[in-house]
Amino acid sequence: MADELGVLDGLVTFYASHHAVRAEKVLAKGGYRVMLVPGPREISPNCGVALQFEYTHIERVRELLAQNKVQIEAIHKHRVEVTEDRLNRMRGGG
Amino acid sequence: MAPEAQRIVYFDNAATSWPKPPQVREAIIGYLEQVGGSPGRSGHRMSIAASRLVGDARDAVAHLFNVDDPSRIAFTKNSTEALNIALLGWLESGDHVITSSIEHNSVMRPLRFLEQQGIIELTVVSCSPTTGYLDPDDVRDALRPNTRLVVVLHASNVIGNLLPLREIGAVAHSAGAPLLVDASQTAGAYPIDVQALEIDMLAFTGHKSLLGPTGTGGLYVREGLDLRPLARGGTGSRSELEYMPDFMPDKFEAGTLNVIGLAGLGAGVQFLLDLGMAQVRQHERALISRFLVGAARLPGVKVYGPADPDERIGVLSFNIQGVSTSKIGLILDQGFGIMTRIGLHCAPAAHRTLGTYPDGTVRFGFSYFNTLDEVDYALVALAEIIEEEEHGR
C-alpha cells in the first residue's frame, strides 16, 4: 500500500463522480495502476473523488481519457499524503 | 372449467416485467449488504463503490443503445419523468410540436398541459386505424415554420406496432427540429441504435423489458442539445456553487439517486447484453407469431395492429365479440392464472384511433421469459371462454 501510494504521484480531478468512476474503468482496462481517493480540498472544491495514477504516464492517460469522452478538471503532480507508516502508527494507537 | 388453475402465466410485461433475471435480485441484495453508500457524495470506499454501480449501469445502458458518451444519459425514476424533462426542458413559448394519435398519456398529458397554458401549439397526426402506422408524409404536411419538436413513441403500448423512426426523424430534421422518442415499450425488447436512427432524445423505463426494478429509467440527450432541468438540488459536484451544474448527467440528477434500483437495472441490462438483442427479439417474435396464427383460428377474436410479426413487438391487443374486456380479464386471471391488462392502458388517444374507446381491449404483453407453451395455454383459455359464451346464450 505504501509502495503503491509512493508511485501514484499523479492526481486527476473531476467535476462529477460519473467521470471519476469512468476514468478508473477506462485506465484500469488500459493496464494502468490507478486508485480513487477523496479529492484533496486544497486542490479542488469540485467532485469528492479524485484519481491517482503514475505521473510518468500523463500523456497517455490524458489521451485515453479524451478518447473515451471522460471529462476532467485538471491533472496535478500530487500524492495524497497518508503513508503506510503513519496509518500503522494510528492503528496502533501510538 | 379451469384446467391448471394454479398455474401462473404472466402476460402483463407491457405494464411491468416479471420475473426478473436472478442477477437483478443479487445486484439489489449486493448493494444492501456490501455496497451501501451514496454515489458521488464522499470519497470513502463505500461511496466510491456506489458511484461504480451507477457508472456500470450507465455504461451498460449506453452500450445497449449505442451511445458513445455515457454521460449523455441521465437517470430518472421512469419514462414519464424523462419525457417531462425533455418536453418541459426543451419547449419554449411559441413553439409548435408534432406528435402521433397513439401516444401514451406520459407524452400526451405534458403536451396538452403546455398547449392549455398557451405555451405551445400542438398537432396530433392521425395514425392508421387498422395498423397504427404513422405516415412520415403526414408528419411532413404538419410542419410549420415554428415546429421545434417531433415526439413519438417507438412502439405503441396498445397496438404493438413499430413506428418508422428513421423516416419520421428525417422529416423532423429537415425542419431543424429534434426527434424525441418514447422507448418505454421497446427498450430491451427491440434493438435501438440512437446513432443509426438519428434519435436526438430517447426516454426509457427500467422496469419493463430492461428487466430492472420499478423506479428506474432515464433520458438520453444527444451532444449539443441543451435542456433546462426539471428539478434543482444537490448533485455532489460543484458543491461550492449555489447554482445547478450545467453538465450532464448531474444537471438532471438533483438529489440522491435510486442506487439500489440502478444496481438492479445495471444487472438487467447486462443480462440483455450477454444474451444479445437479436436473440431476445427472435424469441419474442416467435411468441408473437404463435399468438397471431392461433388467434386467427378463434371465432370472434379480433387482434388489432399489423398482421406481420416483423412490424410489431410483443404487445398484443384483442377483443372477443360479445364479451366485455373486464369479463375476459377476470376469467383469465381467476380461471386460468393468466395475468393481463384490460381497458385503456393510459392511452385514450390510441383507443380512439383504433375505435376501441371507451371499452378498450385485452392486452397481452410478452417478455423474454414467456414460452410458446404459455401462448398455447392462453389460446386454449380463449377458446374455452368463447365456447362458454356460446353455450350461455
List keywords for this structure.
heterodimer; A: 94 residues; alpha+beta; Alpha-Beta Plaits; 4-stranded antiparallel β-sheet; 4 helices; globular; B: 393 residues; alpha/beta; Aspartate Aminotransferase, domain 1; Aspartate Aminotransferase, domain 2; 2 domains; 7-stranded mixed β-sheet; 11 helices; 13 strands; 39% helix
Give the SSE string of chain B: EHHEHEHEHEHEEEHHEEHEEHEH
Topology-level CATH name of the largest domain in chain B: Aspartate Aminotransferase, domain 2
Largest interface: A-B, 22 and 28 residues
User: Helicity level of chain B, as a percent range?
Assistant: 25-40%
Query: Count of DSSP helices of chain A?
Result: 4
Task: Flag low-confidence runs of chain B.
Answer: none
Determine the strand fraction of chain A and express it as a percent band.
Answer: 15-25%
The percentage of residues in β strands of chain B lies in 5-15%
Structural Rg of chain A: 14 Å
Structural class of chain A: alpha+beta
Q: State the separation between the terminal residues of chain A, measured CA to CA.
A: 20 Å
Tally of distinct domains of chain B: 2
Report the span from N to C terminus of chain B.
17 Å
Taken from the alpha-carbon principal axes, the silhouette of chain A is: globular
CATH overall fold name of chain A = Alpha-Beta Plaits
CATH architecture call of chain A: 2-Layer Sandwich
The CATH class name of the largest domain in chain B reads Alpha Beta
Number of strands of chain B: 13
